[in-house]
Write a structure and sequence with these properties.
alpha/beta, eight-stranded mixed beta sheet, 12 helices, 15% strand, elongated
């Protein structure tokens, strides 16, 4: 099968952004919104990112929250246009450069997220999605990540074909659906001065708890999600194995049917009788529908992300344990 080629325009626009620069004020607004929504009954908090592209960096200078999905009286598109118009009137950056979403201990990857990011990157080439993990941040680990779809994933969604042959020709796998873009947080000079003054006012016993092993809750949540995804991935593997077994059985049935017709035609030829009429074998044995491979690929990507995060947090915890043990021994 010939390998599909990636659109050169996608490759050109893809290399435009090397890193994302987030203003401290925008980050605080994102954190406030995600913490408030996570404390309520809303599972996911989402909003728009505003800013501009300067050379090879995407600057995010402002943001605003999307209306809650439970409020059906608000038109999302009209709401966003009105917000950007209002920001433009007060001389604030109003260019749409992406969107953000809250996450629950790394559990953010889903088909709706990929589809939304595809539409964003199709209409706004440099757009990114920021993932803010509120539960992990509450434990003292600031979790802010920026992602973009890879050129292979963009081509896959553009063709809207998720069959195994298509994924193989595009060389799309669980490890190259999304690419992580480096994030840099920038504060103004006045903000840095304020933070420096506040650091001197923090009591020593409150600001020196560097050996606090605060990863237990985070690790527990990630392990729970990891087990759920592994179970789901196992179910998808069982479905695909059943499909392969059905294909083998159908192929064997076709072979027996053709052999039977060949024997009957030989017998009819021996009796000087005309052969059996030609039949379309594809109408008798219709091709079995191939199960889509995108859902299990998403699960495998999430399992890989969980495993990476668990390894990172475990390494930090082990380092703290060894340091604590050494300090206790010296004392």
């Amino acid at each position: 099968m010939a390998s599909r080629r990636i659109d050169p325009k996608i490759k050109e626009s893809y290399s435009a952004v090397r890193y994302v620069q987030v203003e401290g004020l925008a980050l605080m607004k994102i954190a406030k919104h995600c913490h408030e929504e996570c404390a309520s009954d809303v599972i996911i908090a989402q909003g728009a990112l505003l800013g501009l592209v300067v050379e090879d960096r995407l600057e995010i200078t402002n943001c605003f929250a999307f209306p809650k999905s439970v409020d059906e009286s608000i038109n999302d598109e009209k709401y966003q246009l009105d917000m950007m118009k209002s920001l433009r009137q007060v001389n604030v950056d109003h260019y749409h450069v992406g969107w953000y979403q809250s996450s629950d201990v790394g559990n953010f990857l889903s088909l709706p997220l990929l589809e939304s990011q595809f539409h964003y990157q199709t209409s706004i080439e440099e757009s990114v999605v920021l993932i803010f993990d509120a539960p992990k941040t509450n434990r003292g680990f600031l979790s802010l990540s920026a992602y973009r779809l890879t050129p292979q994933a963009l081509t896959m969604f553009k063709e809207n074909d998720f069959l195994p042959d298509t994924l193989k020709s595009l060389k799309v796998g669980y490890d190259n659906l999304l690419v992580k873009v480096p994030v840099v947080i920038k504060n103004s000079t006045l903000t840095n001065i304020l933070l420096s003054e506040l650091s001197f006012k923090i009591k020593v016993e409150e600001g020196s708890e560097h050996l606090d092993i605060g990863t237990a809750t985070v690790l527990e949540g990630q392990l729970r999600h990891l087990m759920d995804r592994v179970d789901d991935l196992n179910q998808e593997a069982i479905k695909f194995n059943r499909y392969q077994q059905a294909v083998v059985r159908q192929s064997a049935d076709k072979h027996r049917y053709l052999q039977k017709r060949a024997l009957e035609n030989q017998a009819r030829a021996a009796k000087d009788e005309p052969p059996l009429p030609e039949e379309d074998i594809s109408k008798i044995y219709k091709p079995l529908p191939v199960p889509p491979r995108l859902p299990p690929m998403l699960m495998a990507t999430q399992v890989d992300a969980y495993a990476e995060e668990i390894a990172k947090f475990s390494t930090q915890s082990l380092a703290k344990l060894y340091m604590t043990k050494a300090m206790n021994t010296n004392n």
